[in-house]
Write a structure and sequence with these properties.
Radius of gyration of chain B: 21 Å
Strand content of chain A: under 5%
Strand order of the largest sheet of chain A: 1-2
Strand content of chain B: 15-25%
CATH class of the largest domain in chain B: Alpha Beta
Number of strands of chain A: 2
Shape of chain B: globular
Number of strands of chain B: 10
Distance between the termini of chain A: 44 Å
CATH superfamily of the largest domain in chain B: P-loop containing nucleotide triphosphate hydrolases
Order of helices and strands of chain A: HHHHHEEHHHHHH
Largest sheet of chain B: 6 strands, mixed
Number of domains of chain B: 3
Structural class of chain A: mainly alpha
Strand order of the largest sheet of chain B: 6-7-8-3-9-10
Helix content of chain B: 25-40%
CATH topology of the largest domain in chain B: Rossmann fold
Helix content of chain A: 55-70%
Oligomer: heterodimer
Number of domains of chain A: 1
Radius of gyration of chain A: 24 Å
Shape of chain A: flat
Distance between the termini of chain B: 47 Å
């Protein structure tokens, strides 16, 4: 639970084109791109898609290693998919045979296809999450949920909860790091023993962490009430979301790509 | 030399855009039985530095030696080391977790293998050192105590390990003046009577000036001044430059000296300073 691990899927500040786009545009684009990814039927389609994503990636000037780091957690699923398809999807020419096991043309095709789709799915999502600050994200979600308000979807409250939760992740990480060290200084052992022993040994860390989380929640509630906070209607914002020319260009480009994939059938 | 740092550097989150060099090439030594003050502005690296003493942080480069041995060489048992070199973090009351005061204070000594009578003896000792009555407090829940009591219980938990060195990170932050004074008197007594080595991290100059026999001043991850309180506070200009101040007594004495009075400026208790002022300026030599 070190501080290093929080960079995963974390916002990397910058001022590239992607950083500047409206979060609503990015959320909608992400949705459209994911749809497009599932519409793709041929490898040509993937080349077209990779070309587009690659251009965005280069323009975003994000370091390569963040993508590899982001891909690490899904590596297992990707390999699993690849192996399953290679071994069990049948059809076409037989490339390789060992007893009852065969690797056939269809399997190789589907395996590579699905793997590429999975990887691109993660890379596209990373491209958006790495260039959008969590606060902007929450703002965007709130805005997009606004039309659902009459149906009883509490968009504003959801966004507020997201913002608060995100805001307190680093604080609680820091807190847990501090408590862990304080207990280690009293000879606590978090590293050795079997799973039950280890779970028991976590008590000196978890109890103070919960106590402090509740204390913080209380303090925050009092601080918000002291400022006469009441959410929802008629609340103005410090940063109003405003779509600019580039945002429209972005939405049109992405929609265009999706439609092109759909109608050309690549 | 009991604790020694050699060219010690430490970086937070190396290899990310959030990388910060917290400590730069620090070399210092702390002798057994001394009372050392570590002062510096907020974010100067002083808290980060003391966490190296018991192996909670591993230096990015350089060495930390205890009794002449590098603590990161594999022959050292860090858990055993931590019971000898105890560290009390800022706001230690936040680390309490047990159902009773007894259990919480016993956590440290139990981790070093103590049981039964010996353990109870240690708990009693720890609580009594902090001026808490064993019979009254042992069965109470730490969460029902007042802020000041919680802090003393946390401190008792550290003392119950009977350490040789005790590192205190801003131990009096948020305490009222009387509580502060009592707390420091306890520490001072332990230092004097039990020959406990004390390392006190603070940015309260008044507090440290009359307690410590050696001061290290940190600024931006480096040691900028070191020596006895008298030597360090003599460089008042430099101290102010890094955002700290000299004790108000020292300022008074230094102002008097500037006015041409022949007066000592290295006195840090009100009594001594008053005596010096009376002696030098008494009667015939008025301001």
């Amino acid at each position: 639970m070190s501080m290093q691990s929080i960079t995963l899927g974390h916002y990397i500040p910058g001022n590239s084109l992607l950083h500047q786009l409206d979060p609503r545009v990015k959320l909608i684009s992400l949705f459209i791109l994911i749809v497009a990814l599932f519409l793709i039927k041929t490898f040509n389609g993937f080349f077209f898609y990779i070309f587009f994503i690659g251009a965005l990636f280069i323009s975003s000037r994000l370091p390569w290693k963040y993508f590899f780091r982001g891909l690490k957690p899904v590596l297992f699923i990707v390999l699993f998919t690849l192996i399953l398809h290679f071994l069990f999807t049948k059809g076409g020419e037989v490339y390789w045979r060992l007893g009852a096991l065969t690797v056939e043309e269809m399997g190789v095709f589907m395996g590579t296809f699905m793997t590429l789709r999975l990887i691109l799915l993660v890379v596209t999502t990373l491209l958006i999450t790495l260039t959008t600050s969590p606060v902007a994200f929450a703002d965007g979600i709130e805005h997009l949920l606004r039309p659902l308000r009459p149906l009883g979807v509490p968009g504003y409250e959801i966004a507020m909860m997201m913002t608060i939760a995100l805001r307190f992740i680093p604080t609680l990480m820091e807190e847990s790091d501090k408590i862990r060290k304080a207990q280690m200084a009293r000879g606590a052992d978090f590293e050795t023993g079997n799973i039950f022993r280890r779970a028991r040994n976590m008590i000196p860390l978890l109890v103070p962490l919960f106590v402090s989380a509740f204390r913080r929640a209380d303090d925050l509630a009092v601080a918000m009430e002291a400022r006469c906070y009441r959410g929802g209607e008629q609340r103005t914002k410090m940063r109003e979301l405003k779509a600019h020319f580039l945002d429209y260009v972005g939405i049109f480009t992405v929609s265009g790509i999706c439609l092109a994939i759909f109608f050309t059938g690549i | 030399m009991l604790i020694e740092a050699r060219n010690l550097s430490y970086e937070y989150m190396p290899g990310t855009p959030f990388q910060v060099e917290a400590l730069k090439n620090i070399t210092l030594g702390i002798e057994k039985g001394s009372f050392v003050g570590i002062i510096g502005e907020t974010g100067s690296g002083k808290s980060t530095f003391v966490q190296h003493f018991n192996g909670l942080l591993k230096p990015t480069s350089g060495q930390l030696l205890v009794n002449g041995k590098d603590i990161w060489s594999h022959s050292i048992d860090l858990r055993a080391l931590r019971t000898k070199i105890a560290l009390l973090f800022q706001f230690p009351e936040h680390q309490l977790f047990e159902e009773t005061v007894f259990k919480d204070v016993a956590f440290g000594p139990r981790n070093s293998g103590l049981k039964g009578k010996e353990l109870a003896g240690r708990v009693r000792m720890g609580l009594e050192m902090m001026g808490l009555d064993y019979e009254i407090y042992r069965d109470r829940s730490p969460f029902t105590l007042s802020g000041g009591e919680k802090r003393r219980v946390a401190m008792a938990g550290i003392l119950a390990m009977s350490p040789e060195v005790i590192i205190l990170d801003e131990p009096t932050a948020g305490m009222d003046p009387l509580g502060r004074q009592n707390f420091l008197e306890q520490i001072e007594r332990l230092h004097r009577e039990e020959n406990l080595t004390v390392i006190l991290v603070t940015h309260n100059m008044e507090e440290i000036a009359c307690l410590a026999d050696k001061l290290f001043v940190f600024s931006r991850g480096k040691i900028v001044l070191q020596g006895s309180p008298g030597d360090v506070f003599a460089s008042a200009e430099q101290i102010r430059e890094i955002g700290l101040d000299v004790p108000s007594l020292t300022r008074l004495l230094q102002e008097l000296k500037k006015k041409g009075k022949n007066i000592r400026t290295d006195l840090f208790t009100a009594e001594e300073a008053a005596a010096e002022i009376l002696c030098r300026l008494g009667g015939r030599d008025r301001l």
